[in-house]
Amino acid sequence: MNKKTVAATFLMFLISFTVIGSASAQTQVSVGVSPGNVFTYDLTFYWNSTNPADVAPAYLVAQNQTAYFQLTVETTTSTTVVIQTVWQLLNGTALNGTDVSEVSSGATGSIYVYAANLTAGGLLFPSATDLPYLINSTGFRSYPSGFRETNHIAVNNTNIEGYVYSYMDLYFDKQSGIVVEYTLTSVSSSTPNQTIAQHLALKESNTWVVPEFPSMLVLPLFMAATALAVVLLKRKQTSASPQATAV
Question: What is the chain written as a DSSP string?
């Protein structure tokens, strides 16, 4: 499996998540990021299996050797953001790409940027009024530079072809709309005994001072997400510990 496989899987959930019907915007929609904004993330993958004979896929182990994942805002319009992406691996390989976020309808399927100044109870994509995806909560996160309001949405999807289920847990900055933390946990129909979780966490930006996300919080988030699975999930290991670890 080539190195673009995980990147494609990484976008799969939101592509299915943003099938848009005909609807008109009910609220003023605007972009909160600007050209030249840079956001750098830690990217980690976790793997579990209930079958002791299973081993973590080689491609996943390779892709987990990530130095950083970076977004640079190239251009913006009233509702569209064009981003240059760099997935930098520890072996020196850099996977470059372009991402387009249409924040009003979500039609492009991007996971990285959302409309500015959305609030709890509102639609994740303001013009997609036929979609049931509402922001669960809006609260303050503590940053070294002060407090910032952050939106949170969690969605469990069981109707994606080829998957038993896919669970998204997403936090994004209210003012800018940029993703600050994201966990996608999925179980493939072809390997229903295996679970893969992708965790993205903002660690640096030139727009504001970002907080440190304690690594001890990642595992509880992952275990809470996998509790929704239809099968019990357990990492192959020789010790008796049931906790998942990065592959």
Answer: --TTHHHHHHHHHHHHHT---S----S-------TT-EEEEEEEEEEEES-TT----HHHHHHT-EEEEEEEEEEE-SSEEEEEEEEEETTS-EEEEEEEEETTT-TT--SSB--TT--TTSBSSTT-TTS--B--EEEEEEETTEEEEEEEEEEEE---TTEEEEEEEEEEETTT-BEEEEEEEEEETTSTTEEEEEEEEEEEESSSPPPP--GGGHHHHHHHHHTTSSS------SSS-----B-
